[in-house]
Structure prediction request, 636 residues.
Amino acid sequence: MREEGIFGTMDAQFNRTGLTNFLALLLAAVVAEVLSRLAGSSAGEVAAALLMLGALVALVSWFQMRLAAREEAERVEMEDLARRRSDSSLFAESAADAFPAQRARRSFERWVVPGFTVLLFAGQAGAAWWFWRAWKGWSAPGADRAMLASASFAGMGLVLLLLGLYASKLARYASLTLVRPGASHLVLGALVSFMAAGTGVATYASYPAWDRHVTMGAVVLLGLIALETLIALVFEAYRPRVKGREQRLIYESRLVGILGQPTGLFSTAAQALDYQFGFKVSETWFYRFLEGAIAWLVLAQAGALWLSTALVVIDPGEQGLQERFGTPVATLDPGLHLKLPWPIDSVQRINTRAVQSFNVGFVPDANLEKDNTVLWTRPHYKTEFNLLVASREQAAAGDTDQTVPANLLTVSIPVQFVVTNAQQWAYNHVEPARLLEQVANREVVRYLASVDIDTLMSSGRGEAARVLRARIQEASASAGLGSEIIFVGLQDIHPPMGNKDHRVAASYEQVIGAEQEREARILEAEGYANETLPAARATASRTVNAAKAGASGLVNDAQGRSARFVHQVAAFKAAPDVYPARNYLETLRTTLASTRKYVVLPTNTHDVVILDLTEKLRRDLLDTPLEPVKRGDEKK
Prediction:
């Protein structure tokens, strides 16, 4: 090979093939985008992005192919001119000026190709990141246009596959490496188109989740291709340049080549086995047989996988609804069952034991619900809805044009239910869960318009929950939903917050606070009255009783003195001389009993007076004679 040569013999047919690859990929990308928008398929969106990136690769490779063709034509022309002239030193000295096509090709490879590869990596990584972020927000595709989009994707994939196989064989047999990137992207585009067609069929067969799964796989593939492009850029910056060695296109993905070329995977596997075992494993008869029979083995595995769809396992707590071409044929209980393979028979699983729930009046937010403090002036859900509720306020007297009094109220009502009849739940309505939620919303609105706001916010919550549960259950049974309402709760009830300043809730909170303060002061006054009045009554009763006792004592004392005076008169009459002297002595004894007494004796006498002031025992005790003790009694 010549220096820096990566190109074989090129002609107009190869140029047409490269241009055809670019136009086919560009047209397929536009068609895939239109079909994905028409059917709402996220897998089609990713397929359109892969096809557009492949079209850019095919465009650059086609342009590089034209530069290489011009260089080849220029080289042949210059060699022919050199043979015609005997002296070629002039051309040898001015070789740099004599080959402008070669300079253009080398400049393109040196500056444009790395720059395009950087932009290609940015596009691949940006698309993968955008699809990854948007994947969670994508909804299920519609089933009404799914089959049309599926047939279109399948037809487009077939055209891309034929063009890709032709270009791939042309690049392999003619040693034309510049055709290979476009050919690989054509086959990859056919693969993702077939996958998008499969998601359309699955959506039509009531399996819309397959679209999300295929989309995620395609996004991961796009991310891996971007990572490979980045690694190729890094290796290209640091790889050694050797003259005469064929250079690999840095914007050509080996991963796309493996997926786009049927023999790429076997060649890679053969090289890995040869390196691992140290001999040509790829030349053994078993490997040759395996390589020739791989298609039949894949078909056998696919057939076994298809036959495995005849077995279905219904988990505990579930019921399976067996359908044959969309028509219900049986209800399957938990356990292992046999059916015809898909798509003849399909089974729709209904969980009849799990408690399901939905919310009325609010949209939950996991971050806001972490706050344990619930305030009226602070939002604690993502979205809260205001509902009309009745009020006991009456119209003013004489105003006959007064409307019905009502208020706005924010209510958070979680509703929990279980499915009791799988057939009614699956077949009576298209979206039974959404219908049940709408029925619950209707019953809540009707009930709140008939109850008082003050009662509902205070003591009427339990009664409201019971009435709402009964009404929602009755409406569910009337609609034939086959469900049982097991719980209805009124967890947050408060006035609407109003504008951004939450003035409505704050004003209502002030009114409720004033009412609560009024009630607190009334109860405080009643408590003070209950404490003070009994004490006052007890004091009054004690004072009256003390006065009565004092009056009774005075009366009794007066009566006692009167009676003593009568007896004293009688005693005086009986002993006029003795009675006054005795009273005098008694009075003297009484008054001098606690007084210190001094005895003053005369000094002109020698008499000795002995006063025995000790307390004497009673005379009757001293004067009582005691009988002598007998000897026999002493022993006792």
